[in-house]
Design brief:
Blueprint lengths: L2 E10 L2 E11 L4 E6 L5 H8 L7 E6 L12 E4 L11 H11 L4 H14 L15 H13 L5 E5 L7 H16 L3 E5 L3 H7 L2 E6 L2 E7 H8 L2 E7 L12 E7 L2 E6 L2 H14 L2 E7 L3 H9 L5
The structure holds adenosine-5'-triphosphate.
Length: 299
């Protein structure tokens, strides 16, 4: 395993922010970290990066604790933005890459390439504080990966971005993974985790309550959805045994079912009411799993 969090606990006084969590992220994986506000995501990242000492347990990268000496191999996009507001964009990117021991010429070329890729080359000589929040976020992402780290930790990389920029950054992060990087990111958007990640975990009040590959997490949840479209009044079907939730849709409904056999019963009963135009068994979304496990939606 390349990133290994082992029985890590962090207390602030009497308050336990992270409670005995163990988690492994293999080399080259993209891992999504979900959790409500205050669940302990940032605290876990800070422990992983050696910025906070765990109260108990340890966090290892390739078998060793991360220290300042590893900064050439590690990239971090912090939640509170960490750029110098008065420094010019290009100058700042090169300065930060140089701190991580990148060659000056390479850093200059790399910064230019990334600014072009993110469609902001005209901001190279502007001060960071003159940029919009979304554009500052692009610069922050470039700063975290310009030096080509092996491990990239991103704390809410997509916050404050419009949908077009979200797609642009997603693509860049995926490409970076394809070049071999190990990436962990936190997000309040479950669809982003669903789309980008191999593995995921959910933190709730400092505890790791779900952990695994997205496929396994969905399978072990057991429940499925049935999407059923019919012109008949299918609200009658909501009361069948094994139906856990009924969500009406235009000319149809989505039923949460306890297991697959309920789907067949639902189809049989729906056909008795009239022709069925569409019937599909769907796996649960991460959002449904999150709501059920954490009990609320504010991931
Ligand atoms: N330095 C600190 N001193 C005291 N309490 C802290 C400190 N840092 C974090 N906490 C507390 O630890 C808990 C976890 O915070 P953390 O920032 O790790 O959560 P998070 O999951 O990243 O939340 P968010 O999604 O809101 O960013 C919170 O209740 C927070 O108030």
């Amino acid at each position: 395993m390349s990133l290994s969090i082992s029985k890590a606990t962090k207390k602030f006084g009497d308050f336990t922010a992270v409670d005995d969590i163990s988690l492994d992220v293999s080399e080259g994986q993209m891992h999504g970290f979900l959790g409500a506000n205050g669940a302990g995501k940032t605290t876990t990242f800070r422990m992983a990066l050696g910025l906070l000492a765990p109260t108990a347990g340890e966090v290892l990268w390739k078998g060793r604790s991360i220290s300042y000496a590893d900064s050439p191999y590690i990239g971090y996009l912090p939640e509170e933005r960490g750029l110098y507001p008065k420094m010019k964009v290009q100058e700042q990117l090169v300065y930060l890459a140089r701190l991580r021991r990148m060659d000056k010429k390479q850093a200059e070329l790399g910064a230019q390439e990334w600014l072009e890729r993110f469609e902001v080359p005209h901001y190279a000589n502007k001060k960071v504080e003159e940029l919009s929040k979304g554009n500052q976020q692009k610069i922050q992402l470039i700063a975290s990966l310009l030096h080509k780290p092996e491990l990239l930790i991103l704390d809410e990389p997509f916050s404050g971005l419009d949908p077009v920029n979200v797609e642009m950054l997603k693509r860049a992060i995926l490409d970076f993974q394809q070049q071999g990087a190990t990436i962990v990111f936190s997000s309040h958007r479950m669809d982003h985790v669903e789309e980008l990640c191999d593995n995921m975990s959910i933190l709730d009040k400092g505890k790791l309550i779900v952990h695994g590959s997205i496929r396994d997490v969905k399978r072990s949840f057991g429940k499925q959805n049935v999407r059923l479209y019919s012109d008949a009044d299918i609200t009658l079907l909501a009361g069948l045994p094994g139906i856990e939730k009924f969500t009406p849709q235009r000319s149809g409904a989505v039923f949460r079912i306890a297991d697959e056999s309920v789907g067949q019963l639902l189809l049989t009963e729906a056909l008795k009411l009239g022709p069925v135009r569409q019937f599909a068994l769907e796996e649960p979304t991460l959002e449904e799993i999150f709501i059920e496990k954490v009990g609320r939606t504010d991931a």
